[in-house]
Design brief:
This protein is α+β, with helices and mostly antiparallel strands. It has a single domain, classed as Glutaredoxin (3-Layer(aba) Sandwich). The chain contains five helices and ten strands. The strands form two sheets. It has an eight-stranded mixed sheet, with helices on both faces. A two-stranded antiparallel sheet has the order 7-8. Helix 3 links the parallel strand 5 and strand 6. The radius of gyration is 18 Å and the shape is globular.
Length: about 190
């Protein structure tokens, strides 16, 4: 009898996440920003969705398009359930990334990718909340400059709880498995 109970307990446990769990280590999703259509948005607007929060900027030539491309491919592979996911691309370059520019940039990726930005004070507060560092490089002619930033993607469940951290070295298969699992969980009542 004891062996049967032990086997049942082992079967009822969830398999570990394939990416990094941050459950209990990061705060819930919270922000007030402007989306790529110029509308004010906040975390509550995405209640019931699985939200991925990624900090970057549209003039990025490597990390941002690679990350958004990988997430877009994963969402496409997931299919219909991916309609309940959102990738919030938080531009930390509000000087150049206007809502109109973000709308053009995010259109190149999955329909679930939404550009958001805000004032420097809003972005600083949000980056501190999720312990994301970013800085600006030297200003070059014609207003060009680099923005140095984290490449991590924070993943929140349908209730806005921080659950996972996707990093550059995570495979598309691992990301897909974890997103499938989060998307299969019931939305909040």
């Amino acid at each position: 009898m004891l062996l049967v109970l032990a086997l049942l307990a082992a079967c009822s446990r969830q398999a570990p996440w394939q990416t990094r769990s941050i459950d209990g280590f990061m705060p819930d999703l919270a922000f007030h920003l402007e989306d790529d259509h110029g509308h004010s948005v906040q975390a509550g607007d995405y209640a019931g969705k699985v939200v991925m929060l990624f900090f970057g900027f549209s003039h990025c030539h490597d990390t941002c398009p690679a990350t958004l491309g990988k997430l877009s491919a994963v969402l496409d592979a997931i299919g219909t359930p991916a309609a309940d996911a959102r990738v919030l691309f938080v531009s930390i370059d509000p000087r150049r990334d206007t809502p109109a520019r973000l709308a053009v940039y995010t259109k190149a990726f999955a329909p679930q990718v939404i550009g958001v930005t805000g004032s420097r004070a809003q972005l600083d507060a949000l980056s501190k909340r999720y312990r994301v560092a970013y800085s600006y490089g030297k200003n070059y002619p014609h207003g060009n400059y680099a923005v140095y930033h984290s490449s991590a993607v924070f993943v929140f469940d349908r209730n806005g709880r921080a659950r996972l951290l996707f990093q550059q070295d995570d495979s598309a298969e691992a990301i897909r498995a974890d997103l499938d699992r989060l998307l299969s969980q019931s939305p909040p009542a």
